[in-house]
Write the C-alpha cells for this entry.
Amino acid sequence: MTGFTSACDLARSQLLERPRCWLVTGAAGFVGSHLVEQLLELNQQVVGLDNFATGSKENLLHARASLSPSQRERFQFIEGDIRDPAACEQACSGVDFVLHEAALGSVPRSIKDPLQSHEVNVTGSLRILMAARAAGVRRVVYASSSSVYGDSPALPKVEGSVGRPLSPYAATKAANEAYAHAFAKCYGLEIIGLRYFNVFGPRQNPNGPYAAVIPLWFTGLFHASPVIIHGDGETSRDFCFVENVVHANLLAALTTEPQAVAQVFNIACGERTTLNQLFWLMKSEVIQLRPEAAGVEPIHREPRPGDVRHSLADTSKASRMLGYRVACSLREGLARSARWYSGQAQSRPSPPAPLEALGP
C-alpha cells in the first residue's frame, strides 16, 4: 500500500503543479466518467469524446456533481464517434495525453454482431491513434482486456504469454494491441496499454442485455429478484474496483520509465474469485442495507459461449514499472458499490430490465 500511495501521490502532485490537457474517449462511460472526475478534481483541462452508444449523460452529471465551478469549466465535451476522423481530429487538437476508453464491450454482443465490434473497437481505435499522431499528442494510454489471454490455461496471466482469442471481442482487443505496437515502432508514438480484469464499481450500468455481472446482481439483490449464474458458478475472475483502474491510467500517463512505453500491463487485484463466492460476498453486503435480500438464491443456467473458465492476473510488471499497487480490495469495492446501487434502487424502485444475469 505504501508504494502505491507514494506513486499516486507523486502523480497527483505533478498534475497539480503543472496542469495538462487530456482527452478521455468514452468519457460518458463507466470507466471514462471516473477518469474525467479524477482529472477535473486535479484541476486538469479535460476534453471528453462520446457518442452515447453505451455511455450516458447521467454518468457525466455524477462525475461533475462534487466539483467546484472552476473545475467544471475545465471540461469540454464533444459528442462524436471515434470512427469519425473529423471528430477524432477535433478531440485530439491541443491535447497532451489521450486516455482511450471508448469501445463496445461484452463478449455476447461481439458474437451477435462481430462487424460492429470490429468497426468500433478496431477501426475506431485506429482513428484515434492516427489523430493523436497527427496532433503531436505526448502519450496515448489505451484500455485493453484480459480477454486477450484467450484459451491459454496458464494462471496467473502474465503479459508475455497470450493464447488464441475465444470471441470477436477478444480479437478486437488483440488487434488494438498489435496496432499500438506498430504505431510505436513505425511512428515513435508513445503508447501504453492496460489490460483490465473485470472492472466494477459505481456507475456501471445494470440495464440491457449486455450488462456486466456485478451491477446486474446488485440490482437483483436490491429488488429481491432472481439472480442467474451461467454455468456451475466455479468460473473465476480477478475483479478489480474502478479506483484501481483510474490510478493505473494516471501512473501510465506520467511514468518516466522509458521501458514502460510500448508495453501492456495487467491491471487487477491479483485475486481469483469464483462466481459462487462473488454472489455470497455481494449478498452479505446487500443484506446489511436491505434485509429482504436474504431470501435471494442464485439460479444456474447453461454456460455462455466465448467465456474463459478462469482468470487471474500477475500484476508484478505494473508494480515494477509503473508503481501500481491495489488501492481498493474486492471486499471494500463491493461495500462501496453496494452503497451506491442501494441509492439507485431507492430512486428506481422497479428493476429496469429483466434480470437475465450474464457472467463477467
